[in-house]
Specification:
10 helices; binds fe (ii) ion; Udp-n-acetylmuramoylalanyl-d-glutamate--2,6- Diaminopimelate Ligase, Chain: A, domain 1; five-stranded mixed β-sheet; alpha/beta
Length: about 260
């Protein structure tokens, strides 16, 4: 276990955590057992832990932290409590890498950027304000050729297999420079507006902010939060395999809502 935790620190150094996101790393600490399987996921629920037990995984690596606010009690009847109880009972460690994996070079933003066809990507917001840092939140990239906004939006929907998609801006507008912010896109909006991007692709924006984008002349393509971040399980699995090629990786994401056409 300890060796894998050291590898995780190489994959996504915890010092890349954003200030508002301090609870990265070990969330539930199990014993230092031999790890024969790792479950990777976006969210942790009691079902996720049960899946890890079933598939003999001693470590769960999630993007979102299951425990964000301080727990006052650990009760089976409370799902956060149940997660901790189940994990500890079965010697399972839960480790979360949220903003460090968003920010790190080769992390989630780069993974999703490649999926939607971005090239020459660099951070939208360099880590610590250091312009030489290859890490940071969001990405700015270019499409190989200029395309219509609506055509690019259709490409985004297909490449992310997104359940919903909203477009703000004129469909026949030509775009090439693309800003990307996986997950919640709110924190990056002001940076995007100054970045010279033609369009902002993100996973979560509020109505009011969409209005603001229009007023600022910025186009926007918004999909669901998890439609940008469900790739965490695959991307993290591949990253671990680069260090431990024979490690068993179980990817698990439960789609807990559905959309109607
Ligand atoms: Fe997220």
């Amino acid at each position: 276990m300890k060796e894998i935790l050291r590898i995780l620190e190489k994959i996504a150094p915890l010092q890349l955590s954003e200030d508002y996101d301090a609870r990265n790393g070990i969330q539930v600490e199990g014993p230092n057992v031999d790890v024969t399987g790792i479950l990777t996921c976006l969210d942790v629920t009691p079902l996720t832990v049960k899946k890890a037990i079933e598939s003999s995984c001693q470590l769960i690596i999630s993007h979102h932290q299951p425990i964000l606010t301080p727990l006052k009690t650990i009760l089976k009847s409370d799902w956060y409590g149940e997660i901790a109880i189940l994990a500890l009972k079965h010697d399972i460690t839960i480790y979360s890498v949220h903003t460090p994996y968003d920010a790190v070079e080769g992390g989630l933003n780069d993974y999703v950027g490649k999926l939607i066809g971005l090239e020459e990507m660099y951070p939208l917001q360099h880590h610590g304000g250091d312009l030489n840092s290859p890490h940071g939140m969001g990405r700015l990239g270019k499409l190989k050729e200029p395309v219509y906004l609506d055509d690019f939006a259709a490409h985004v929907r297909e490449s992310l297999n997104a359940s919903t998609l909203k477009v703000v801006g004129k469909g026949k507008r030509m775009i090439q420079k693309v800003a990307l912010g996986t997950g919640n896109g709110l924190a990056l909006i002001s940076t995007v507006l100054k970045s010279g991007a033609d369009v902002y692709v993100t996973g979560d924006v509020q109505y009011r902010d969409m209005r603001g984008m229009v007023q600022n002349g910025m186009s926007l393509i918004a999909v669901e939060h998890d439609d940008t971040e469900k790739f965490f399980s695959k991307a993290m699995g591949e990253a671990i395999k680069r260090f431990l090629p024979s490690m068993k990786i179980v990817e698990y994401n439960d789609k807990f809502y559905h959309t109607l056409n």
